[in-house]
Amino acid sequence: MAALFSPFRSSYRYLQRQAHENPVIFYSCVIGGIGPVLALVVPPIREHFGYVPPPTIPNGYPVPNRPRRPVQGYEDE
């Protein structure tokens, strides 16, 4: 049974050694590995707690339903 868990034990020791010798690289890899998992897990959790996405931003201003008046003043001719 001990031979079954031997690869995991050596991997754990390797990761532990890397965390002590190269902590910047080790923790960068840990955070980089967590990112894709969070991208798949967080949206369903947000929906479960009632998050509603905001309405879309309009692409233009509404145009009034009347004829345009010519500009007067400030030397517009």
Automatic annotation (TrEMBL):
This is NADH-ubiquinone oxidoreductase 9.5 kDa subunit. The chain crosses the membrane at residues 24-42. The keyword rRNA-binding does not apply. Keywords: Membrane, Transmembrane, Transmembrane helix. Residues 55-77 are annotated as: Disordered. CDD domains: NI9M. The keyword Acyltransferase does not apply. It comes from Candolleomyces aberdarensis.
